[in-house]
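User: Just a sanity check before I run the rest of the batch. Below are the structure tokens for the first item. I only need the designed sequence back.
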């Protein structure tokens, strides 16, 4: 292995830059050439490639976003799109590829690896934490901290006005961000796809809290693939129980900002591990961290299998709230 490439794909996540930095410096330490592919798979198909050296990743560890840019590419889902990408990789004599992204990125990466024979290693980078094969994805910790900071602020105004608030967080089809930010923010209730609750049940629980002396409450809601769903829930609660409520959608605020120390360490570790995996002929795998050890999971498993919520955490929220 002489020359490797790195790209970021899908939604950006805080810590992606720290991961790029680590991969570049680890590659150089192993005397590998490394190039960056801009704008994810779209850039790969178009040959949008830049050389990377030690200095090109200076002073980026603390920045959110990704210096390489990212995109979601429909064309790469097609065989002809992937053929374009394979031609570029061959023309540029790239024999190893590091993909930083989430399950969508690894779906594409699985096919690319099978169709090209080029070594492809994935690194989990998404705020959603929905990749099988790692305890945490890069960006999740920062996103949770951002959500908690917002919930704390909303708590102040909710208390000042005796109000019910619904706070919607991201997470696509999962409730990881909602669960951890809900516990850390002391939320009264949680609406996540993994533990369905209808508006009747929610109204009943909220009524119990208010009967017990609570005057304000926060319900953390996972967007569950339908950003804005919270407006409907809030309306239903108002119609059924008469509770007046406010809705706050955190949205893309959760994707930006400086990565937390935890995300920087994880990203640094996984970036270096990805280079090592390529050198050790572990193409077709994702590097993750499980119980503090580096873990290798077939790329296919990362999106075919489900990462489950921490058992017990949802129960804990209900024991502690109210
Ligand atoms: O996958 C990360 C994520 O932020 C999800 O939580 C969210 O559903 C989605 O991306 C939003 O995507 P976009 O930025 O393309 O609107």
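Assistant: Here's the designed sequence for the first item:
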């Amino acid at each position: 292995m002489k020359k490797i490439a790195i790209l970021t794909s899908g939604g950006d996540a805080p810590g992606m830059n720290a991961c790029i930095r680590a991969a570049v410096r680890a590659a150089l330490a192993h005397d590998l050439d490394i190039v960056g592919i801009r704008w994810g798979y779209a850039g790969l198909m178009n040959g949008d490639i830049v050389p990377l050296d030690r200095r090109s990743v200076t002073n980026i560890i603390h920045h959110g976003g990704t210096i390489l840019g990212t995109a979601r590419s429909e064309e790469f889902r097609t065989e002809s799109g992937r053929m374009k990408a394979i031609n570029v990789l061959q023309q540029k004599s790239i024999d190893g590829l590091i993909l930083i992204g989430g399950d969508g990125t690894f779906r594409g990466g699985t096919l690319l690896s099978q169709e090209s024979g080029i070594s492809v290693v994935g690194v989990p980078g998404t705020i959603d934490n929905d990749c099988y094969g790692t305890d945490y994805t890069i960006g999740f910790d920062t996103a949770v901290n951002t959500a908690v900071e917002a919930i704390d602020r909303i708590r102040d105004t909710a208390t000042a006005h005796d109000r019910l608030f619904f706070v919607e967080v991201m997470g696509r089809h999962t409730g990881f961000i909602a669960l951890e930010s809900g516990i850390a923010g002391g939320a009264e209730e949680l609406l996540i796809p993994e533990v369905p609750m209808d508006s009747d049940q929610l109204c009943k629980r909220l009524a119990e809290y208010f009967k017990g002396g609570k005057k304000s409450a926060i319900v953390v809601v996972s967007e569950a693939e339908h950003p804005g769903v919270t407006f409907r829930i809030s309306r239903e609660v108002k119609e059924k129980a008469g509770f007046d409520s406010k809705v706050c959608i955190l949205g893309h605020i959760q994707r930006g900002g400086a990565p937390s120390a935890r995300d920087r360490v994880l990203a640094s570790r996984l970036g270096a591990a990805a280079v090592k995996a390529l050198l050790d002929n572990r193409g077709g795998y994702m590097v993750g961290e499980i119980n503090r050890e580096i873990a290798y999971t077939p790329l296919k498993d990362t999106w075919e299998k489900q990462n489950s919520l921490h058992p017990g955490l949802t129960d804990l929220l209900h024991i502690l709230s109210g």
